[in-house]
Amino acid sequence: MARKFRVGVVGFGIAGATTAYLLARDGHAVTLLERAPVADPIGAGVLLQRSGQAVLDHLGVLDQVLAHSAPIEELHARHAPGGRTLVRTRYGDYAPGFRAYGVHRGVLFRAVRDLVHTQPVDVRLNHEVVAREWTPFGEVRLIDSRGRSHGPFDCVVCGDGSRSHLRQVFGFRASVLKYDHGTLWVTAPGTGEPGKLLQVVRGTSQLLGLLPLGDGLVSLYWGLPNNTVAAVKARGLDALKDEMRAFCPEAEPALDFLHDFDQLIHTTYRHVHLRRTHDGRVIFIGDAAHAMSPHLGQGINLALVDAWRLAACLRTADSPAAAFTAFVKAQRDYLRYYSTITWLLSPFFQSGWRVLACGRDIALPLMPWIPPVKRQMLLTVCGLKGGVLKGRLTV
């Protein structure tokens, strides 16, 4: 018979909140610690892929989220000079009825946060975890920045994001690649191009995207080297808007909303790889374990699948170590595939290597004409590719 554990969850984001809810629902005693004084979402709109949709369906909140989201039938990338199509990926070509959804991060977060409040989760805001201690019985206590002790816990789940400081504090070795390119983004009134995520590129140096979010909102993002943000700001907002308007005329409604540079949020990205994700008592999930660039639109979906599968492993295990080992085995090929593909793909869209754009512009339009390749591309963007040599993932 599976045991019930005392679980500490660090981070009130999508990964942490979903995990806390699922574990509490299964009867575990859950304490959720968050460093911020208020649990609010941070970030731009997201693509809810088929994998993430499956998890939300299991949670019973999919319809609630989709009611405030925009259906995305295809991913359309084109060149800025002349508008020539680079690639069009239609979800329905994989299976009828398949689509993604553009979702405001706040809509998704509120749905998960409300689930947490339906369970006896001990939520402790404004508690920044800075250390851990071991009890004589091998349990874990978490120490916050004001010296307060939390626990003891049988195990701890860390979902504190791509910039997690607990990886180093807890003795986990991480490889972190900080990308040279990031984005300026804003959520504005508008519809974008209904039914599609539109991306406009010029080589690997410029990228503009429009993602419809539902509720009359659209997310606009402008890719650029991080070291040029100050210079762009110095040129002035009008100059930037003129450049984006010429680059992508469909961005006009969102640009009309911009009247102050401070409305644009500069976001940087990193690629995180943990050599090991757990030590038998503590495990890292979500972006804390495997942050990636947003070019495949998988981050939120991977976090949701992490939470779902970790809860399933703890539901049947007789120890946290056994559950963590089973979880890593279940997720290894899946996460390795998306981590590798995203890492390889990112420089072809945002980097200083112009030669990569030539290879991309030749190969990418041809790949969908090869039926087996097209099917694997579709499975990948849906978030359902189980691994390099594996087929469709079951969530």
Automatic annotation (TrEMBL):
GO terms for molecular function: monooxygenase activity. Residues 6-315 form the FAD-binding domain. Keywords: Monooxygenase, Oxidoreductase. SUPFAM superfamilies: FAD/NAD(P)-binding domain. InterPro entries: FAD-bd, FAD-dep_Monooxygenase_BioMet, FAD/NAD-bd_sf. This is FAD-dependent monooxygenase. It comes from Gemmata palustris.
